[in-house]
Each structure stands twice: as structure tokens, then as C-alpha cells.
Amino acid sequence: MTDNKKILLHTCCGICSSYPISYLQNEGYEVTAYFYNPNIYPEEEYQKRLEAEKTLCEHFNCKLIVGEYEPDVYYEYVKGLEEEPEKGKRCDKCFALRLEQSAKIAKQLNIPVFTTSMVISPHKDYEKLTKTGN
């Protein structure tokens, strides 16, 4: 497989990443899933989502990289925006944190492109995610 068919997929949960993994594989991509979500609270919820992601990636024979669970990094990154509503400025910062980290990992692994499973969620702002990712 050529490098231009490799892609890093930032994943937030098994529900949101199942279709993108399947779709990208069907399009001929070698998908590497990257689970980096320091924003998930409590840690028990984080662990449930991670376990679901592991099961999903095993099902699709998809490589999974698990980023550090670092809620302190997230809290510092969004400091002062705690009262922002869903889809507000706190979400913008959270998107930036996770996508910047995804871009770094893609670069380290020599994967030329990355995306996120969050773009298919009806609870996330596709336009903001796209702008941030670009």
C-alpha cells in the first residue's frame, strides 16, 4: 500500500468511529485509529469508551494508538471557558487540542493525512471541525 493511502483517524468513541473506519477501509485506506480524549470525564467513562474503541478496532483489524489520558492538560487548555455552552468557544478549544495532537502523531508516523470521527456526530459542528483541522 502506498503512503498516500494511509490515514490517521482521531476517534472519540466506538459509535462515531465505526462508520468512518469501515468507509475508509472500503475506499482502500490503511486506517490507524488514534484515541486521544483528555476531555472525557469521569475517568470511568473514558475507560468505557476506550474499551469500546479497542473492541471495534479489533473487529475491523485496525491499528489503534491510545494517547495519554491527561485531563489536567484539557482543563488548562480551556481555562476560563468552563461556562461556555455546547458548540461554544470551549468546544473550539477542545477540537483544537485534539486535532493538533492528532496532526503531531500523523506527522511522527509519516501518515500524510488525518481526520476525526467527530465530523459525523450530530452534536458537533462540522464547519468548525473542518476549519480547525485545516
Describe the structure in your own words.
The chain is globular and about 40 Å long. It has a single domain, classed as HUPs (Rossmann fold, 3-Layer(aba) Sandwich). α4 packs across α5. The chain has a four-stranded parallel β-sheet, with helices on both faces. It is of the alpha/beta class and 134 residues long.
Can you give me a brief rundown of this structure?
Helix content is 49%, strand content 14%.
Radius of gyration: 14 Å
Number of strands: 4
Calculate the terminal CA-CA distance, rounded to whole Å: 25 Å
CATH architecture: 3-Layer(aba) Sandwich
CATH topology: Rossmann fold
Number of helices: 5
Q: How large is the share of residues in beta strands?
A: 5-15%
Strands side by side in the biggest sheet: 3-2-1-4
Count of domains: 1
- Mean pLDDT, as a whole number? 92
Q: What overall form do the CA principal axes indicate?
A: globular
CATH superfamily: HUPs
Q: Could you say which structural class the secondary elements and strand pairing correspond to?
A: alpha/beta
Which regions are unreliable across 5 or more consecutive residues at pLDDT < 50? none
The amount of helix comes to: 40-55%
Order of helices and strands: EHEHEHHEH
Which sheet architecture does the biggest sheet show? Answer: 4 strands, parallel
CATH class: Alpha Beta
